[in-house]
Specification:
Arc Repressor Mutant, subunit A, 3-stranded antiparallel β-sheet, WH_DNA-bd_sf, HTH_MarR-typ, DNA-binding transcription factor activity, DNA-binding MarR family transcriptional regulator, DNA binding
Length: 162
């Protein structure tokens, strides 16, 4: 049993969890300053970086940690705030798109500088270019195995949704 406790796989997932938790806590305070939740920020980023600045609702659910009904609730709330709008799918009446609005893009514009400063200070800025490139490649391999739907609805598999 003692050998399993010290298994490097446990260390790897523990470090990953600690990094995620630490960054999430730092981001939360900065998001609050801009009146956006972490989930809303993720939705805005996914839409802003998608072709036509829109995604089918089901694709948005696949790319986030939300269920289909969870995405519907978030999109409803964000639509009431004017950050997004819905658009009917011209080829499938059962589907609709979430589309970022100018107000949503403006919210991103005001939030991103502080967010990027935190990312630089506590994450990517700690790595030289080679290590960052290796990390991005490694994270894509892990992401693709753990969340194969993360790139649904995108056209550029290397950078669209990260």
């Amino acid at each position: 049993m003692t050998n399993l406790i010290n298994d490097p796989r446990i260390t790897a997932i523990g470090l990953f969890t600690e990094v995620h938790s630490g960054l999430t806590n730092r981001f939360a305070a900065q998001f609050d300053e801009h009146h956006v939740s972490a989930v809303e920020f993720e939705v805005l980023m996914r839409l802003a970086r998608s072709p036509g600045r829109q995604l089918r609702m089901t694709d948005l659910a696949s790319q986030t940690s939300l269920s289909t009904s969870g995405v519907t609730r978030v999109v409803d709330r964000m639509e009431r705030s004017g950050l997004l709008t819905r658009s009917a799918c011209p080829t499938d009446r059962r589907s609709s798109y979430a589309v970022i609005t100018d107000a949503g893009l403006a919210r991103l514009d005001e939030t991103l500088p502080g967010h990027l400063a935190l990312i630089d200070e506590f994450f990517t800025g700690l790595l030289d270019a080679d290590r960052l490139g290796d990390l991005l490649s490694t994270l894509r391999v892990i992401r693709d195995a753990a969340n194969p739907g993360a790139m649904v609805g995108t056209t550029d598999t290397a950078d669209s949704a990260e």
